[in-house]
Amino acid sequence: MAPSLGEAHSSMKVPKDAVWWKKFLAFVGPGYLVAVGYMDPGNWATDIAGGSQFGYTLLSVILISNMMAVVLQSLAGKLGIVTGRDLAQACRERFSFPVVMMLWVLCELAIAATDLAEVIGSAIALKLLFNIPMLYGVIITAVDVLIILVLQNKGFRALETLVIVLMATIALCFGIDLFLAKPDMGGVLHGFLPSSEIIQNPAMLYIAIGIIGATVMPHNLYLHSSIVQTRQIEQTAQGKREAIRYTTMDSTIALTLALFINAAILIVSAAVFHSAGMTQVAEISDAYHLLTPLLGTTLASVLFGVALLASGQNSTLTGTLAGQIVMEGFLNIRIPAWLRRLVTRLIAIIPAVIVTAIAGEHGTEELLILSQVILSLQLPFAVIPLVMFTSDKKSMGQFANKLWLKIVSWTIAAIIVVLNVYLIIQTIMLF
Predict the structure, then answer these.
(1) Averages of pLDDT over each 10 residues, the chain, 431 residues
(2) pTM for the full model?
(3) How far apart are CA 106 and CA 342, in angstroms?
(4) 47, 110, 128, 286: which one has the fewest Cβ atoms less than 10 Å from its Cβ?
């Protein structure tokens, strides 16, 4: 079977006899491409709603869901390094043709839903910052597919560098907004401790499940298992063990940055809106417009808009890359990268254009919610095969999950399945 992302496979050298930190730097990159999905526009609405309604209480949920993500992404990275297969290729090898086709269709729907969230998020940012109508903003986002094509011609490291720069931009914007919001640090620290109130209060539980459902992105598991193979590693037990260690360090650090950004969105919302008695702020555009009068400076709103635009563009880069990996992995069909990305983008833009033209801005907010429900539906179909494959001694050998890791990963899978089913039922009842 041909390697995943053939044009970039083993394209980046790893120094053999260098000190540990130089080796680690060679592995830095894939974790940040993955972390992007954990702070995309689909996460913003749940974080804003959680902060405005319940203050700092749901910070513990962001922390727990991030810890789940760290475990699952480390498994995805390990699968790619040990077997030389991405998750989609592993599914094609292990499952029957009808099952593979079903998994592929579900995954394509999830990627289209993710892309839809990025398109709408970017269009909202363009409207807020430059007063560009939503319909035109949605169409403009079609152009950013060209950025990926240009960057991939310059090598995979160029793509990783842009993603890291955009992530740093988001972190800086929210760091300044945090300073301006002057949150109650005692309340923030207390918010990271789990509270029984989350389970007892149905409204709080619903948003908590929304945060978890929007955090672990199914396409990220396929993406990570592929892009870790861009590094040239020694195909020995020692070489693989070293690669797993550095890859896990990379994704854990990147996801910690994603944790900071998600927590910052909720903290700003809690410090600005909840403390002012505005407990119904849930939409991204409302948050943008209210930051200026409540904090007394337009800088806060501008930074919020810039961060949203950076988030949408970043997620677009990784979402379209995941689309290529999934098509190649499940179907073993290789079409030109530009065509694959154009198709992915059109699938997302067409419904966004139609809804924006008919229902306006309010319709796009509902479409954003629907995209998260589609993602929730697909998630178990990515998590369960991943845990299965990495626990299998036949394919993983000495790198198969130890008993404690099996227990932890299956528990996470079970929690995600149960909570997502609950979220879907509750969302259907709302419509």
Answers:
(1) 73 81 90 85 81 92 92 96 94 94 87 77 87 84 68 76 89 90 92 88 79 76 93 90 95 93 92 86 80 83 88 79 85 75 70 71 65 74 94 93 96 85 71 60
(2) 0.89
(3) 19
(4) 286
The residue whose two tokens read 């839809």 is 116
Q: In the numeric block, which tokens belong to residue 1? A: 């079977």
d(CA 377, CA 424): 8
